[in-house]
């Protein structure tokens, strides 16, 4: 048994407070779900399940809301997962596992995130007033649960990845995003393109706000709103589709929680081994750029060929809608990969990495 992707769509990625500021996750998701099914020529009643990654919501199973809002049959229960940044790839991994196990033949998998509409969060303790917080704990040990930007700065220092190299990568990301033709985009809510890419110059980069160490606002992905979905189906349906790529291998693995930027490395190595491939065999790589240093460090550690990574720009240019970011990587890969093998990989807080290999 095998699992295949036959359609993939995403919304534009819009910075927090931008064109999608009024939309809740299920409202971001529903149009993209409908467009993905339309691309594949499948009817809503053929869908067996919908899996949605969401990290910032307040629970309530937004996958169920998205399924109903998109007009899927009421029998499609909807499953919401939260593995933070890795969730968008893990939704696809779960969908593939269902298909391979024979539990489903058609699964919509993806993510939707609204930074703009995320709820305010407060921690409570007996005898104390509620205290607001932005980042929940990702380990039981505060000394091994760093702020993400501080962890990126420490990684840059340890590995000797200079601010200049990070800025060069950010400039490349933005320029490629500006130049890109992106067939996966679904225009809605008056947004037809990603809202953040811009023409960066050395002068602009020099003026960027310093966040920690050599990490600046220009070498960090901005908070964003977006949704993305892929349609995962059986080999039988893939054989009838106009286009299909096989989900060749996937893995999600834990790594050192205090160095989250390197967490994709074990997962990347695992999927390459599962697929019997070397890094040089990859035709294309979609690698998360939460921070420029994180992408560069993973490329260096895994020997990923720089000239095949993020060919149409990355998250430094788009932004980071946490629960949707992994699916955006897979969606980009699906649309670009015409032959050979492609890798999508992402890091998550707490020291988690997810990776996926698609074969055309």
Automatic annotation (TrEMBL):
PANTHER family: ACETYL-COA ACETYLTRANSFERASE, CYTOSOLIC, ACETYL-COA C-ACYLTRANSFERASE. This is Thiolase family protein. Keywords: Acyltransferase, Transferase. One of its GO terms (molecular function) is acetyl-CoA C-acyltransferase activity. Belongs to the thiolase-like superfamily. Thiolase family. The keyword GTP-binding does not apply. InterPro entries: Thiolase, Thiolase-like, Thiolase_C, Thiolase_CS, Thiolase_N. Residues 5-180 form the Thiolase N-terminal domain. It comes from Gemmobacter fulvus. Transmembrane segments: none annotated. Residues 245-359 form the Thiolase C-terminal domain. The keyword Ribonucleoprotein does not apply.
């Amino acid at each position: 048994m095998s699992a295949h992707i036959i359609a993939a769509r995403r919304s534009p990625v819009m910075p927090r407070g931008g064109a999608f500021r009024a939309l809740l996750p299920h409202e971001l998701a529903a149009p993209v779900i409908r467009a993905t099914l339309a691309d594949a020529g499948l009817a809503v009643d053929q869908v067996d399940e919908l899996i949605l990654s969401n990290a910032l919501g307040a629970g309530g199973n937004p996958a169920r809301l998205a399924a109903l809002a998109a007009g899927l049959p009421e029998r499609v229960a909807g499953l919401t997962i939260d593995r933070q940044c890795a969730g968008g790839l893990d939704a696809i991994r779960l969908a593939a596992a269902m298909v391979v196990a024979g539990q489903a033949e058609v699964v919509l998998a993806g993510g939707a995130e609204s930074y703009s509409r995320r709820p305010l969060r407060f921690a409570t303790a007996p005898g104390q007033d509620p205290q607001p917080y932005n980042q929940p704990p990702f380990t039981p040990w505060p000394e091994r649960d760093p702020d993400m930007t501080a962890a990126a700065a420490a990684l840059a220092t340890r590995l000797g990845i200079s601010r200049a190299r990070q800025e060069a990568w950010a400039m490349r990301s933005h320029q490629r995003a500006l130049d890109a033709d992106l067939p996966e985009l679904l225009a809605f809510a008056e947004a037809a393109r990603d809202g953040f890419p811009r023409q960066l110059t050395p002068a602009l980069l020099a003026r960027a706000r310093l966040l920690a160490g050599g990490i600046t606002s220009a070498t960090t992905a901005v908070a964003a709103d977006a949704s993305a979905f892929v349609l995962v189906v059986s080999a039988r349906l893939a054989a009838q589709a106009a286009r299909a790529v096989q989900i060749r291998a996937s893995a999600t693995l834990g790594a050192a929680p205090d160095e989250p930027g390197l967490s994709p490395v074990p997962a990347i190595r695992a999927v390459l081994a599962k697929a019997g491939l070397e890094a040089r065999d990859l035709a294309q790589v979609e690698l998360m750029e939460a921070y420029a240093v994180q992408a560069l460090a993973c490329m260096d550690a895994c020997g990923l060929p720089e000239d095949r990574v993020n060919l149409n720009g990355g998250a430094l240019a788009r932004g980071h809608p946490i629960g949707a970011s992994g699916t955006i990587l897979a969606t980009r890969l699906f649309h670009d990969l015409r032959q050979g093998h492609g890798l999508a990989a992402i890091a998550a807080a707490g020291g988690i990495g997810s990776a996926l290999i698609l074969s055309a």
